[in-house]
Design a protein that fits this description.
five-stranded parallel beta sheet; Rossmann fold; 3 domains; globular; 429 residues; six-stranded parallel beta sheet; 17% strand
Amino acid sequence: MKLFIEPLREVWQELASRPSGDNPVVELRVSEIISYVKQEGDKALYSLTQKYDGVELKSLYADKGILTESESGIDNQLKRSIDTACENIEKFHRAQVREDIDLLTTDGVRCIMKHLPVERVGLYIPGGSAPLFSTVLMLAIPARIAGCSEITLFTPPSKDGTISPAIAYAAFKAGVTNIVTVGGAQAIAAMAFGTESIRKVDKIFGPGNQYVSVAKQLVSKYVSIDMIAGPSELLVMADETSEPDFVAADLLSQAEHGSDSQVILLCNSAKLAQQCIDAVNEQKASLSRDHEIDGALETSRVIVFEERAHMVAFSNFYAPEHLIIALKNPWEIANGITAAGSVFIGNWSPESAGDYASGTNHTLPTNGWARSQGSLSLESFMKTVTFQELSREGIKNLAPIISDMAAAEGLDAHKNACEIRFRKISQRL
């Protein structure tokens, strides 16, 4: 990790740059995969799964028995942990249910807003070296609470053509019944356009590697997606009240996601910076994902700002996916944060709590998108529909206003649609 002492604002843009960028080779390959799936449907999915996963599928869908028998596939301790995480995620997302709006804006003018579920959703769950069964809970639980009528989970198959037992159990607990054992860009294409056996979804959710991320961007012209989520990132603020070992553990927890992840440490002294760097080097020696960690640390930074205000300003400029405020009186700082996906307060709040079991959602905006959007929530699985009803009194009250505004915009037919009704009412008086 490179160390910077009191960098001037002129170099903040460079310090806030992410390691990943556009890759035209990946985009071209993903475009080819999407076209293949659009043209050949199921045949393409079988072929691409054989090519990229080395698995010859007999069916695109997992046997439903995998779900009902999943309780016997993992140990009791992990089951209890998943059950507890389910409860907390359920509580937090159920509290997000919003009331419909029904009011009179003017005498005779009734306006309504209803919150309705997205009907068909596709949930992408990464597999590979780290099957993210926690993401099943983060996506499927709010989808169920929202009332989505069709929830289909897509995840890459293991070598024997089945899925991770932990993913199966998490899906069972979250109420998922349809699982497609297809991963990668081809899964995103199947969700977006449908095949002979897979229905097109209304919205795509879930994280993935660069192929999945690019595929989501490309199909977003045709189907809604949750967000453009890139490699994981974390920013930690630390001072003399912080525990260097805690800080190091948090930095490493995000670095292990992948070599394209990024972690940044802001601290108030060069002494503390070095203590944290030393702790990182000591702890990473005992961790298993050394390739991913070393790659991430290559593009990660430690920055010293003596002034807390400068820490806040840089953090808001960077707009991290995850932010840990391990400072004295952390809520004073938290109240000044305007751009972050999810914020963790104090020394006893590791970022991994949000990844798994605190109850908040771990699907978050990356690459600076936290400046304009927030985390996945119950609202992500809903849509709003507005209704309006004008009585005779209502059109009488609004017609002159609408006519004036339509005339000013040069839209005579808009004006006439109100005036023809107004004249009808006047004739009956």
